[in-house]
Amino acid sequence: MQPSAQKAQSYGAGSAEYGNIMLEIISKCLPDDPTANLNAAAAMIDNGEYATAKRYLSKYGDTPQVWNNMGAILLLEDDPDGAQALLEKVSAAGIKEAAHNLDKLKKKRAGDIRMKRYQQQ
After folding, report:
1. Which residues, other chains included, contact 9 with Cβ-Cβ below 8 Å and sequence gap of 6+?
2. Tens digit of pLDDT for each residue in 24-59?
3. In this structure, are residues 50 and 44 in contact, taking their beta carbons and an 8 Å threshold?
4. Which of 8, 35, 67, 107 would suit a FRET pair with 116, their CA atoms being 20 to 30 Å apart?
5. Where in the chain is the domain with CATH 1.25.40?
6. Whose CA is closest to 101, among 48, 54, 65?
7. The CATH number of domain 1-61, selected from 1.10.8, 3.40.50, 1.25.40, 3.90.550
């Protein structure tokens, strides 16, 4: 493991520091590696940096893994219809992670319905 990767691990996956170090490693060492870009996108999604995540996903291609991550981003950006279309494609492709994101989508829609009812009272 490279020294910078060890340092990133010391902060813990999901931390802003981890994401920043991993981005530095990827941009310098693995700029065209699909898996590295997919992992960088996941780190950016965890950090709430959706535009950066989309940039990394665009390097990975048109695959179910990209659709799943893009669906998650759309869900977080409050586009449940766009998220649903992508996540259903992912589910049809047999990617297990789609079930988790589809469950989040279902809960979001239920919450939106409750909020709408509350606002109408």
Report:
1. 1, 18
2. 777 678 878 888 888 888 888 988 989 989 988 988
3. yes
4. 67
5. 1-61
6. 65
7. 1.25.40
